[in-house]
Design brief:
single chain, alpha/beta, Arc Repressor Mutant, subunit A, Rossmann fold, 2 domains, seven-stranded mixed sheet, 14 helices, globular
Length: 339
């Protein structure tokens, strides 16, 4: 009886004229194990065509055929990252007449455990992205700040960032973490504000530069501020059982292999009512930053960030957008871990 009611409910949502073809297109797209694997992989993460080929072990021409079928059914969407095309699940729209069908299909997939070989393939891609990023910083650490300033000079958004910090609701003595501080002045400015500050970076070279930069900027005042330095990523902080009231990513997320996993880790590291402050680029098409600055991602859409935050259990709060004269746009986003 419930199955019949479900069928009637879906049918009543379908507008007149040609919609049965659209429904058949969706069912055809879902009626293939490989295409279901692809949708499972793309739950909340983007992959390029060649990356997907390696994960599912299918040649590119065959995979492109399957991706075309999924795209025609509006089950996946594309995003250009410079010269590469990345695929992810389509963001479902409330006015889509087939919304109930697609939601049910996605929900059913998400209840399944990802097969071991697919999970291993994803991890290998993440490891390679991470190695690519680390290799860049090892080779270009001396010139990285200058290269980064070509894209988004800290001075251009510093005052707005501090206004956001002033408006945050934090405990009297908050525990604060900056991820990937590098040689930016922000770490020393945070040290002047907060007594319990930690700096985290998976590049030892960049971590040492952050330590030296902090000492130079604070001078003798540095003796009054104890900053802890941790070599590793958020998993290292989790393994140490650390927790924070405020976590800050300043122009770092586009260097991280899996932004989705970063949001998951942040949700675990934040105390109740803790805040994630994210400063990064809005999505752009200036591919030269990959080679010049080691960027893995060409910025992010607000929909990407909202989806990752929602999945991790973080609530989206204040957002600020600053356009720069070189064509880039900086976005500042506040996310909160509720009780």
């Amino acid at each position: 009886m419930s199955a019949n009611l479900q069928t009637i409910d879906i049918a009543t949502r379908l507008p007149a004229g040609g919609t049965t073809n659209e429904l058949a297109r969706v069912f055809k797209a879902l009626a293939d194990p490989l295409r279901l694997d692809i949708l499972h992989l793309l739950r909340a993460e983007s992959f390029g065509v060649l990356e997907l080929c390696r994960i599912v072990d299918v040649r590119q021409s065959a995979l492109s055929h399957h991706l075309k079928i999924l795209a025609q059914a509006t089950l996946v969407s594309t995003r250009r990252e410079g010269n590469s095309i990345f695929y992810r699940r389509a963001l479902l729209q409330t006015d889509d007449p087939l919304l109930a069908v697609k939601q049910s299909a996605f929900a059913a997939l998400d209840r399944l455990a990802l097969r071991g070989e697919l999970a291993d393939g994803i991890q290998q891609i993440h490891d390679e992205r991470s190695e690519q990023s680390l290799l860049f910083f090892e080779r270009h650490a001396e010139r990285f700040l200058a290269k980064q300033e070509l894209v988004a000079e800290y001075a251009h958004y510093r005052d707005t960032l501090h206004d956001l910090l002033d408006g945050l609701t934090l405990p009297a003595q908050p525990r604060v973490l900056e991820v990937g501080p590098g040689e930016s002045p922000l770490l020393s400015e945070l040290a002047a504000r907060f007594q319990q500050l930690t700096a985290l970076d998976n590049s030892m070279e960049m971590l040492n530069r952050a330590r030296s930069s902090l000492a130079q900027r604070l001078g003798q005042r540095g003796t009054d501020h104890q900053v802890a330095f941790i070599h590793g990523d958020t998993r290292a902080a989790l393994s140490q059982g650390l927790g924070f009231d405020l976590m800050i990513y300043n122009m770092v997320l586009h260097h991280i292999p899996s932004p989705r996993e970063t949001f998951q880790d942040c949700a675990q590291l934040l105390h109740n009512n803790g805040t994630l402050l994210l400063i990064d680029l809005s999505h752009h098409d200036q591919d030269w930053v990959r080679e010049s600055c080691g960027d893995l991602w060409l910025g992010f859409t607000e929909q990407d960030l909202d989806a990752w935050a929602d999945e991790a259990g973080l609530e989206s709060g204040q957002r600020v957008y600053l356009g720069l004269r070189n064509g880039f746009q900086v976005q500042m986003r506040v996310f909160t871990r509720a009780h």
